[in-house]
Amino acid sequence: MKDVKDTILNRTSVRRYEREAIPEETMDFIYKAILNTPTSYNGQQFSVIDIDDQALKEELYMLTNQKQLKTCNRLLIFCSDYNKITRLAEKKGFDVPPFTNTMDGVIIGVIDASLAMMSAVIAAEAAGLGSNCVGYLRTVDPAKVAELLHLPKGVFVVCGLALGVPREHPDFKPKQSAEIVFHRNRYAEDEKKLVEDLEKYDEIVKHYNRTRSGSTTENDWCDHILDYYRHAMDYRILDYLKDQGYDVKR
């Protein structure tokens, strides 16, 4: 088992895996880490679908064209989940407030599922596994993914997590500096310096993409990320949320 410093500071996203199965005791450790995740109100507004069915993984791969979905040994799908408390409340005769019709309700489920996924990432890394977060499962075809996973009302996909014994050790991607990320007491008093630091980071990313091992590109950080945003403007997530019982009003 890796120590905490090595686990957190040396993590990279792994997309290529060996065929070797993940030991059940390792998966049990990951499960326990997920179960111990801090959540809003201790409401535990999340669920996880653990996929080891190769046919199902390949169906999800066909939707996304993300190879790690079919080559990973286990695929964990982290979901926002208000179905559990709703079912119990109905059994006990309690009225359920329309919390899923509020942005706070949506956000809380996303936060809980995301925290649970990060617990799994750290546990998997500590156990020597590779992992890759796959957000495209949330947006590629939400209705089809919900159908494949038999998601009831009150449940929607937040993110997938591919797990497996790593076949690669990718280069570290450059991250933003502490000066960009951290602010003392209030947000970026010196906005000019912030932009200057961001410009430097943009050039660092461009250099990394030109010189990294494997395939290279001319991508910078800014326009490349904006391109994701442009593509995402076509997503109709609000319509999907309504189909899943999240009729957001405020």
Account of the 3D structure:
The protein is an alpha+beta fold and 250 residues long. The protein contains 12 helices and 4 strands. The chain has a 4-stranded antiparallel β-sheet with strand order 1-2-4-3, with helices on both faces. Helix 2 runs antiparallel to helix 6. It is globular, with a radius of gyration of 20 Å.
Radius of gyration: 20 Å
Q: How is the biggest beta sheet arranged?
A: 4 strands, antiparallel
Number of strands: 4
Order of helices and strands: HHEHHEHHEHHEHHHH
What portion of the residues fall into strands of 2 or more residues? Answer: 5-15%
- Uncertain regions spanning at least 5 consecutive residues: none
Work out the helicity level: 40-55%
Query: Rough shape?
Result: globular
Structural class: alpha+beta
For the termini, the CA-CA separation is: 45 Å
- DSSP helical segment count: 12
Mean pLDDT: 96
Trace the largest sheet across and list its strands: 1-2-4-3
Q: In oligomeric terms, what are we looking at?
A: single chain
Q: What topology emerges from the helices and strands here?
A:
Blueprint: H1 4-9, H2 24-35, E1 46-51, H3 54-64, H4 68-71, E2 74-81, H5 83-92, H6 103-126, E3 130-134, H7 136-139, H8 142-149, E4 155-164, H9 178-181, H10 191-211, H11 222-232, H12 237-243
Helix pairs in contact: 2-6
What are the key terms here?
single chain; 250 residues; 12 helices; globular
Short structural summary:
This protein is an alpha+beta fold. Helices cover 49% and strands 12% of the residues. Helix 2 packs antiparallel against helix 6 (103-126).
